[in-house]
Amino acid sequence: MKPLTVSNRATFINRIIALYFDFYNATSCCHVARSIFIVYDTRSVSAGVYYVLLPSYQPLMLPSHMSFVSLGLSKAILQAIEDCGYPAPTPIQIKTVPAALAGKDIMAAAQTGTGKTASFTWPLLQRLANGGKVRANHIRALILTPTRELAMQVAESVTIYGINLPLKCKVVYGGVKINPQMMQLRGGVDVLVATPGRLLDLFGQNAVKFSQVETLVLDEADRMLDLGFREEIRKILTLLPRKRQNLLFSATLSDDIRKLAEPFLKNPVLIEVCPRNSTAKGVKQLVYEVDKGKKTAMLSHLIRNQGWQQGLVFTRTKIGADRLVQELARDGVLVAAIHGDKSQHERTRALTDFKENKTQILIATDIAARGIDINELSHVINFDLPKVPEDYIHRIGRTARAGADGIAISMVSADEVRQLAMIETLIRQTLVREVVNGFIPKHAVPLTQPLKLRAKKPKKPKKQATDRRAGEELTTEGNRPHRGDRTGEEGRATGRTGKRERQRHEYVATAPIKKRR
Fold first, then answer.
1. Nearest to 405, CA basis, from 280, 288, 287
2. What mean pLDDT is predicted for residues 388-400?
C-alpha cells in the first residue's frame, strides 16, 4: 500500500472516505492529537497503525513491529488477543515473542504491568499447539511462580490466551488439600502453573512426571530468591529433561539471578526493556507527611472524601493489616485483608470480591505485591513504607498497568525518613511531598539525603516445612505430608506415628551408648 499524501485538511478527510472502500469496507479512521494525524484500520487489532502524518503533511510509515501479526503468532492466538482488546504489543513482547517462538532460551527483565506474562504465554501456547499429545500424569510446560496469587493470575492468563487451542492448563499451590490436585493431573496437563513446594510434594507422591517437559518458565525469579526458594528450584531443575527451552523473567537481573540462571540457560537472549530500579511512567508518586498516630484517620478521610473507586493499601505486618481492616470498617468502608495468615479460601474470596468491585479497599502485605492484577486500579497506598526499598517498586507497580495512569501515595511519618531516603536513592528521584488539611504533622519529616544502598541478600533456604511469609508450604524428602493432606486413619496407615513416639525414637537414636567395664 502506498503512503497517503495530502495537501490540506479537507483533502485529508476526503482521502479517509476513499480509504473506507480501499480497505474492503473496513472502518478507517483518523485521530487528531497535537496536530499529528494517524490513519489506521480498526477491522482487527492485528492490523495495527498504517500512517502518521505530521503537520507538514509529510507521510511517515510506522515500523512493522507495531502489529501483532508481525510477531509471527497463529490466528487462534491473534483472535484471543483481539478479544482482549490490546491495541499494540509492548516493548517486552516485541523483543521476547520472536525469540521464544524460535526456541531460544531467554533471560528478561521488565517492570510489572508491561505485558510480561503475555510475552512468554503466547509463544509457549503456539509451540505446544504444534506438538504431540500429553501422557497421563505428565506435563509439557512448567511455569514456576513464588506465590499462590501469582500462580492463579498466570493460570488465568494462560486460559484466556489459549481459549481457541485444544490445550489443558492447571494450577497447583500449597495451603489447600493435595488430593484434588492429584486428581487433576491424572489425565496429563499441557501447561502446569505451580509453586515450588507443592510441585515437589506432588512429585514425591508420583502425581506428576517431568519426562515430557518441553519448556520451563521461571516467573518473578528475584522474588523466589527473596522468599528462600533457591534449593527448591535447583532440585526441580535436576528432575527436568536436559533438552528443553528455558525462559527466566525477573523485575531485575541481579548477580544472584545470573548465578541461578547460569547452569541451565544455554546461550540465552538477554532482554532488558527498562532501566534498572525504574518505576512505571504512568504512576504519579506522592508523599503525604503525617504523624504516625493519625495515619488511619487520614486514610479513612481520603477514602471517603476524595472519591476513590478502589484502592490497594500495603502494610508492613499482618497484625497491622487486620487492625486497619477493623478501624476502616467502623467508618463504613468496604474493606478486606489478604496476607499469609489467611486461609487460601479467605485470600481467594477477598481477591475475587475486590476484582468484582464488591470491596472498595484491599489491605495487603508484601506477599501479595506481585500476585495482584487488577484492571484500572487507580490508587496504591503505602500505609507503611517497606523495609526493603525494592518492594516499593513492586507495590506501586499494581497501578498504571498496560500503559494506564495511576496514583501511588506514601503516608510517611518522621520515624520513616530512612526508609524514604532509601527509596528515593533507589529510584533516583525526590518524591513530591504534600500535607492534607486537618492532618498537619506535629513532627515534620526531615529532608532526605542520598544513601549508599547495600545489595539485598536472598534468604537462606528454610529447613522448616512451612514458609509462612511466602504463603507456600514447603517440604523436603523425609518430611511429613502437609496438614490436611492425610489425616485420621489414612495417616496412621501410612506409618505416621504420634509426637511422643517420634520423640522417643529420636531420643533412643541419639542417646550415647555406655561401655561396659
1. 280
2. 83
